[in-house]
Amino acid sequence: MSIPSTDRLTDMFADSGLRCTRQRRALFDALMATKSHPTADMLYRQVISDCPGMSLATVYNTLEAFVKAGLVLKIPGTRWLGPLRWQGGWHPPSAYRADRGCGRLAG
Questions:
Q1: CATH topology of domain 6-106
Q2: Percent of the chain predicted with pLDDT > 90
Q3: Rounded mean pLDDT of 67-76?
Q4: Whole-structure pTM value
Q5: What dihedral angle (degrees, nearest 10) is formed by the CA atoms of 20, 44, 40, 58?
Q6: Strands 97-98 and 105-106
Q7: Domain coordinates of the chain in residue numbers?
Q8: Residue 60: CB atoms within 10 Å
Q9: Across residues 60-71, what is the average pLDDT?
């Protein structure tokens, strides 16, 4: 999935019962632009310069709202994968797996 235009994202959010706020847009764009499975902390560090008032709790709450809306996927943390991670729409959810040796996700 490519990063949607502002109008399209506003519609996607509205269809999911979410308002398209600056913070949500920044977080969604950061997640969709990455080809990795970032943690909430990684995303927070990416968007904090554009949204200085955003807290890490807001990042987690927003990501959970995105999951409930079906916009992103939550990848549970495990012994091999480490902490909870998030996936945008750049590949199907079945396309990732953990390398048990190093714990990294391979896609």
A1: Arc Repressor Mutant, subunit A (1.10.10)
A2: 34
A3: 86
A4: 0.73
A5: -50
A6: antiparallel
A7: 6-106
A8: 16
A9: 90
